Amino acid sequence: MKRICVYSGSNPGNHVDYENSAIALGKALAAQNIELVYGGGKLGLMGRIAGSVLESGGKVIGVMPRGLFSGEVMHTELTEFYEVANMHERKAKMSELGDAYISMPGGLGTFEELFEMACWAQIGIHKKPIGLLNVREFYNPLIDLLKHAVNEGFMRESNLDLFIVESDPDVLLERIANYKPSEQSFKWSEISPAQSAVESV
Question: 121-125 long-range contacts, Cβ below 8 Å, gap at least 24?
Fold first, then answer.
């Protein structure tokens, strides 16, 4: 595994555990010679993990759209930097560069990036591992929501296997390295796979 794309908050959060976890993940990536791909910012958890990788002798690739330069402070010491036109290009480029995805605690932007990659995995666009760094059980409510969606008939139970959930960065990286894509159930409950194959011809 050469590169991991990490989604994380542009704010540091209210607990030092979040910052410490970002720094620990950065050190672990550098120790394993895994390059960091991220959004290119200098603030919040984004800045903490990038700084940690760089200080540990690792490589960091940032991707940022031009329009965010005024609101999102760009990290100026990155190994490589891509300037793109918009958020769609940013996500596509980050996905292209990464061999796996890790979502740290964050807000709407982090959730949006995480769910797009999960959706793509669900429908077979990619088979890359998706990790949740579950610091302070941050993602427990999200996991409960996903299970609720399964119970209510909007998701297949196999979709839950798309996520690797760990609170320890080293354990998460080990599980990502050993990841084997799970077989995903047919998405639509109202038609059969055979019927879908016939109708798509």
Answer: 121/162, 121/184, 122/159, 122/162, 122/184, 122/187, 123/187, 124/184
Give CA separation, 124 vs 117, 157, 179, in Å. Answer: 10, 16, 16
64: left (phi over 0), alpha (psi -120 to 50) or beta: beta
For the record, the structure tokens of 77 come out as 């010491």
Secondary structure (DSSP) of 74-105: BPSS-SEEEEESSHHHHHHHHHHH-SSEEE-S
Provide the residue ranges of all domains of the chain, joining segments of one domain with +: 3-199
pLDDT tens digits, one per residue of 32-80: 999 999 999 999 999 999 999 999 999 999 999 987 655 568 898 999 9
Which pairs with CB-CB distance under 8 Å and at least 24 residues apart come from 179-187? 179/100, 179/129, 181/127, 182/158, 183/158, 184/121, 184/122, 184/124, 184/156, 184/158, 184/159, 185/156, 185/157, 185/158, 185/159, 186/156, 187/122, 187/123, 187/156
- The CATH code of domain 3-199 reads 3.40.50.450
Model pTM score: 0.91
Residue carrying the six token digits 């996991």? 143
* Contact yes or no for 10/131 (Cβ under 8 A): no
